[in-house]
Input
Amino acid sequence: MRKIDSEIISKNISQAVQTANFSLDIKLLSMLEDAVKKEQSSLGKNILKNLIKNAQIAEQEKIAICQDTGIVVIFIKIGNQIQIQGDLYEAVNRGIKTGYNKGYLRKSVVKDPFNRENTEDNTPAVIYIENVLGDSLEFNILIKGAGSENMSQINMFSPTASKGEIIDFIIDTVQRAGANACPPYIMGIGIGGTFEKAALLSKKALLKEKTEDSSIRIFEKRILKEINKTGIGPAGLGGIVTALDVRILKHPCHIASLPVAVNINCHASRHIKISI
Output
């Protein structure tokens, strides 16, 4: 049995939330650079170049890529041969509190959805735990801003719905979002399961690598093509690069339902994966 002190977890989480807020993922940076070449609008090209420059300055100066430093969503995988010495939830939230204070990151979490009193340390995080085999401890961290989160949607389709109807729903979601979710977007889409499962899949999809399922890859490309026909473009000011990527996760569902959830992420798409 491998033992891990909760203080080690806190220290790693503290550093991770700062890194995620300061440093754009290298793959995403490459997507933005490719987008500059694809974009036909001169204004769109300039916006994309400025997004890249903003990311470079944030990395160099160790300041937030975006002023909305989000609510922290964490997917944790715990091996069955791991023994955590201390309270895992407390350790994670302690790490977030320390990281957000050290990094001078905006505190954006309120204690109650009605009273709206700020917790003043950006906790608590939204935490999901999955038990797995082995002695690994993995944290997949997503920094989710409200601008993109507020534009997300879910729809309970009839099981007879076509892929075309699903695409229409996704396009409608994108058009409603417009400039509000800070395009170009990363689109997370969850299909199947139940109402809440589809929503969770759409959030997890933002963190996933490309699927091995060729039919899903084809569907992702088809959706991306249609999104980029909307003309919303970078920052919502017009162009052919409204989204950078579309990622789908699916799950078995009831014979009488077909849930589809769309979770939009902004151009910064801040996330980081760490293992302890």
About this structure: The two ends are 14 Å apart (CA to CA). The beta strands are 2-5, 71-79, 82-85, 126-132, 137-144, 153-157, 185-192, 243-251, 258-265, 271-275. Residues 147-269 form one domain.
